[in-house]
Structures are given as structure tokens and as C-alpha cells.
Amino acid sequence: MWKTVLALLVTIIVIPVLAFTIDEPVTSFQQEILNDLVVVYLAAALLSFAVSTLTNNYSQVDKLWSLIPIAYVWMTAVKAGFEPRIVLMALLVTTWGIRLTYNFSRRGGFSIRFWAGEEDYRWAVLRAKPEFAPKWCWVVFNLLFISMYQMGLIMLITLPAVRSLGGSPVGWADYLIGALLLGFIVIETIADQQQWNYHKEKRKAMALGGDIPEKYRKGFVHTGLWGKVRHPNYAAEQAIWIVFYFFSVSATGNWLNWSVVGMILLVLLFWGSSNFSESISADKYSDYAEYRKKVSRFVPFRF
To answer: With contact defined as beta carbons under 8 Å apart, do 36 and 79 qualify?
Structure first.
């Protein structure tokens, strides 16, 4: 685990340096907006760290994951005088954020007491590992990875909006990118709904007692989109932000620019996160190992 965390922390330093080296320098106007975004990022990260430490609920960043990107992109749109491309990007991010917020809310992620709400089950599993036995290790992990790294990543995935400032006029490529992004939002919505329906029906079957249908005896969703890939929601989430990056390509004509940082780091994070989730599922469900052999992780084919 520490190796993974260290690799992610190193990557978040190395990739930005490389990206800023190969692209055009940041303009003074872009730097002004970036400064504003960094202030919001630091405030959100430190607030998440403080609240999670005081309450022992380490899903504070999760509560902001679907909300803060909306703020970042609209801040950029306002500063840009509502450039058409930036407004389009902001509307798409808002659509993404509303959907994700709803899904997180119905799972009990939010509470009237803002610091409460259901905690991601993986944090409890991680805290129980021997390497986190000393309390200070978990405090450092919470500060550097859960709070600072993840909140930093949330800001970085929205940077294509800043890089797109003053770009070429909106054209057919932007509309195609927007349509693709909406398509992946729909796929993610379907995947989340299928998972929700499966666990709802599984709980109902268990509550009734008697012979539980084989579909639910497995314990994990494995049909529909989940029969094509093991993590259709994760796959769609990554695709959304990969596609979002291409707005900056359309605006600048540069296929590789400094706003690529967030997209790359997001893919790395989901790879590590899915590894951890699957290790838990494999221990919990006897059929999961066979499912993992038959069904690919993110794309519906094997390399």
C-alpha cells in the first residue's frame, strides 16, 4: 500500500513538471485563475483533513468529489467572461456532478450533520492493516493522500477548462466531445443503477429467507454492464475526464498540453482503487476469482 501511495505522490510531482515543459507557458490570466483554484483546493483539503480527524469519518473528500469540480469550472467560466466553450464545459460538469451527487446521496453519503454520513467501507479495511497500527501513520496518510492528494486531483481534472481559455471558436469537434461525454455519463448512470438494483433485490431476498436465487447468492453484481466489464462505473468515470481533456485539444490544437495531468493521475488512481476493491471482494465472495478470470476490468475485451 505504501508503495502505491508513494508512486502516486511522486507522479503528482513528476507529471506536472513534464507537462508544463512540453507545452506553452501559462499566461498571466491563466495563472490568476489557477491561483484562485489553488486557494479553494487548499481550503477544501485542510477542511476535509480537520473534519475527518475530529469525527473519524474519512469520507469527507467523497462528499466534495462531485461538487467541487462544478465550482472550479464555473469559477473559470465567470473569470473568462462566459466564453462559449467554457460555458459548455461547465454545463457538462454540472450534469456530471448532479448525477454523481444523487447517487452518493441515496447511498447515505450525506447527512444533516455535514460531518456524518456513510463512510466508504474501504477506509475501515485499510485502517485495520498492520502498517497503520501506529496512529501517526494513519494521520499522515489522511493528510497527504486522502485529503491533499485526492482534493488536488479533483482540481487537476478540471484544468482543461483553464487551458481552453481564449482558444479557437467552438466547432464541430467540441459538440462531438460534448456528445461523447454525455454518452459516458449515461453509461455510468446505468451502471450505478444496475448495482443499486442488484443490492436492493439481494437484501430483499435475504430478508425473506428461504432459498435465495443463485443470482443473489454470488453476492456481487455480475450481470448487465457488469457482465461486460468488472467496473463499468469506474470505466465511464475515467472516460468522462479523458474526453473532457480533449476540449483543451480542440481549443489549442495541442494534443499534449499541461492540462493532461489530471486525466493521467485519475486513471492511475482508479487502477489502484480497483485493485484494492477487488482484493476485498475476492476475500468476501467465493465466486469473485472466477468472475475476475472471465470478465475484463475496464474495457470489454482483453489485451
So the answer is: yes
pLDDT digits (tens, 9 = 90+) for 239-270: 999 999 999 999 999 888 989 989 988 998 89
Tell me which H or E stretch contains 302: none
Phi-psi region at 166: left, alpha or beta (left = phi > 0; alpha = psi -120 to 50)? left
Cα–Cα distance measured from residue 1 to residue 142, given in angstroms and rounded to the nearest whole number: 13
Interval 203-222: pLDDT, tens: 888 887 767 788 888 889 99
Q: Collect all residues with Cβ–Cβ distance below 8 Å to 192 and sequence separation of at least 6.
A: 103, 233
Environment class of 265 (CB within 10 Å of its CB; exposed 0-12, middle 13-18, buried 19+): buried
CB 249 within 8 A of CB 255: yes
Residue given cell 461486460 in the structure block: 228
For the chain, the C-alpha Rg in angstroms (whole number) is 20
**Alpha carbons 255 and 245: distance in angstroms, whole number:** 10
Nine-digit cell string for 36 = 484562485
Digit-coded pLDDT (tens) for 135-170: 888 999 999 889 999 999 999 999 999 999 999 999
Whole-number Å distance between alpha carbons of 156 and 264: 10
Write out the H or E segment, with its range, that includes residue 288.
Answer: helix 288-294
Where does residue 57 rank: exposed (0-12), middle (13-18), buried (19+ CB within 10 A)? buried
Nearest Cα to Cα of residue 265 among 155, 175, 178:
155
Quick check: helix, strand or coil at residue 195?
helix
Residues in the chain: 303
CA distances from 194 to 84, 113, 204, 244 (A): 35, 29, 15, 25
Of 161, 193, 171, the C-alpha closest to 94 is 161
206 forms bridges with which residues in the sheet?
none
Residue ranges covered by each domain of the chain: 2-294
Rounded distance, CA 273 to CA 174, Å? 31
